[in-house]
Amino acid sequence: MAAYTFKQLPPGKLLIQLLEKKFTGLLVVRPSGSVISIGFFEGRPVSYEIAGADMNIESLREAMLLLFVDSAHSFEMQSSAVAPEKGHSPLSIIREGVLTHYTKERLIGEARELLKGKLTFVEGYDAYLPLYQFEPNELSVINELSETPSTARELAERTSVPLHRVIGVLYVLALTRLITLYSEAVIIEQPQEDLSDEARALLEELKAALAAMESDNIFERFGVSPSVTTEEVEKKFREKARKFHPDVLQHKGLSAHRALAASYFEKLTEVYNVLHDPKERERLKVAPVSKEDQEDVRKILEAEMSYQKALIHFRRKEYSEAEEYMKTAVQNAPDDGSYLGLWAWITYINPASNKDAIRDSIKRALIEAVELAKREATLHFYLGRVLVDGGQTGSAIQHFKRALAINPEYIEASRELRMIERNKTKENSLMSKTGAFLNIFKKK
Known about the structure:
The protein is an alpha+beta fold. The chain has four domains: 84 residues, no CATH class; 81 residues; 93 residues, Orthogonal Bundle (Helix Hairpins); 143 residues, Tetratricopeptide repeat domain (Serine Threonine Protein Phosphatase 5, Tetratricopeptide repeat), CATH 1.25.40. The protein has 21 helices and seven strands. It has a five-stranded antiparallel sheet. Helix 3 packs antiparallel against helix 8, helix 6 packs across helix 7 and helix 17 packs antiparallel against helix 18. About 2% of the residues have low confidence.
């Protein structure tokens, strides 16, 4: 049986493909010198065997998670009799595998198309969410996305969840096509008319199919795996043509939506003409990463690594070293308010800096950082401290209060407000005593 690599078909996508095709047989993987054979019945994992290396695996779930480790390079699918059991849903395993076993480099490499624009949910997504067993911070990302189409970075800023984890949540949802790149054309409201339940359902299917055409992966646009044959491509095209051809929609009472169907059918035909060619399919199995995408991924990773190194030096109070690493992070990710804000603060408190000379430029940088990441309490605190030093107490109070509104347990911001209030009380008391003393000298 031929071996395929997880670079051609990542483990999450593979498990979804097996589920959709109701695969019955063995999935054989060889991570870390061992051989793992996982039995599937109608697309769901039901059993496992491990041979080779001494591995302490006590459950089917643990065995499944080994598909996501970096040492698992290739897999084989073998026809085999498997006992008919109900099996497990792979969705929660995919979530755990991607979010706990993937390196940041691998995650961003596979999910790079999710960084290209705003994302939105497809209809009916909420019915599937309980199957993933998302954690509370991951659900906060999902709740934000359900409110409005957003980029990964926007979601990270609004939820305070690290960007790489936000990308992980989005990637998991994208594997089951619950989210799609946001397209104005997809959600244009069509003329409304009285529709039968059958016609309404068909219209929703058409909209979902058109949204799928926004994918950068040509196999996903057509709804097939990279291992698809010419015969399967032809069969899939006939199925879609019988369902979504403009003439078919007209006969189903959807004549007002003929233009939508024509747009979809044109894109479908273009994809079919490419995938029908075996040589072209082979070339597209491992889609090349553009130089632009490679550069974006490199910058994101370098920014994150520089940020982590800066934090280590910052905690050690090695401010000059921390400042240099944060400078690199800002250069690679200039639109990240968290990076810009931390660089500004470290530069300001660095004993080697002249605070009076740089205060105005640091204040401008922190104002920009707050605009980029409005819901990051720490940035408001940093700006408040700089404003206090500059004598702008009134503005500083507003930012300390904003930090507390975002994070009511922000102790440092609360302490700064108490100090400002105490100083005001002392000033008022002193003014009162001074005034009483001066009254002695007033002429009667």
